[in-house]
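Below is one protein, fold included:
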Amino acid sequence: MATAGVDVSKFKGHSTRAASASFLADNNSNVKDIMTSAGWSNERTFQQYYRKPTESDFNFGAAILNSYANS
């Protein structure tokens, strides 16, 4: 995560699921597709526990997904 530019003092490995799902939702991905890929059967699970506001100065989800895409 540090290699991707993620502040590891603020974010841990467990943050990746919420960050990547929130990033996809913010970028107009279909919520049903997000739920299927994450293994959720209820949209409320995503909305209540995993949907996080993104920070304007650093987007954790983008950093993780871009790091993966560039590997």
